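Onboarding guide, step 5: your first structure request.
Type a short instruction followed by the sequence, for example:

Predict the 3D structure of this protein.
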Amino acid sequence: MAFIYCLSGQNIEKNIHYGKRILDALIDIVQGVSFIECTEECFSRRRCLSVNYWRSILLCEMNSVDQSSHLLSDEPKTVFADISLLEQHFVGGCRNHKCAINMKCVPGPFGTHRCEIQVIQRRCFDNTNFYRTWPDYKDGFGNFKEKTDFWIGNDVIHMLTKNGYTYMRVEMLKTDNEPLEAEYSHFFVGDESTKYNLTIRGFKGLYVDVLDCMTNKDYKQTDANGMKFSTFDNDKRNGCADYCRSGWWFHSCTCGNVNGLFGNKKTASVMRWMCKDGWNCPLKATRILLRV
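The system replies with structure tokens like these:
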């Protein structure tokens, strides 16, 4: 859910650069947001100093540098904003928060804030192999601090859900640049002794095309509730991890595969999610987030 604030009391236009962006400083992306929400996302991250916003595809790129230390490049489809030059209101204590770099600041009343670990998976750079072993998925791989894709680790996901981070959102961008989002009001992962058994319910699709790919009891193959985690070397569901080239809570091999291979073909092994225009909608970017 987006937080609301106003940009007012100044000439905002002079601090926004149309047709410009910063290159080679990307730390994170968010799909399907407005420009205002993009700047808000940057305000809530400790390392973010500026944003490139792609208007046509509603894509927010967050940068670790500002225009005082980095030259702007021409890009007719983007809007650049230096966060330090924008005014922020109604976001509690997040203006000068001290959250760790792998956490997100969430504003509270009377100038307070809390820090939430939120991103547990990111796929957008195509520079990290997700067809990996059980120990890799257990401990995590990739690096959230760098420009790499990553999986935070099943042990960490278990601890997060045990400590109340049980609301899950899956953000996706299709290969045709259309955004998809799926939310689940309850997401809980057991420890390794349960094979990271998944409890999940409460689907909500945030775009008209997205369908439930994890709890649809009308089509049993999509019901991941109660499933154990699978990797190719520790497969709990009939070879699905090897067939889909990923690790996941598979019920069958035919629905979502956000840890699959990059590609735009409608095949089982690529990154995909179930949507209304086809069973296998291929994806070019994904992000999985947890919150309290």
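Each response can be followed by summary notes, for example: The chain has four helices and 15 strands.
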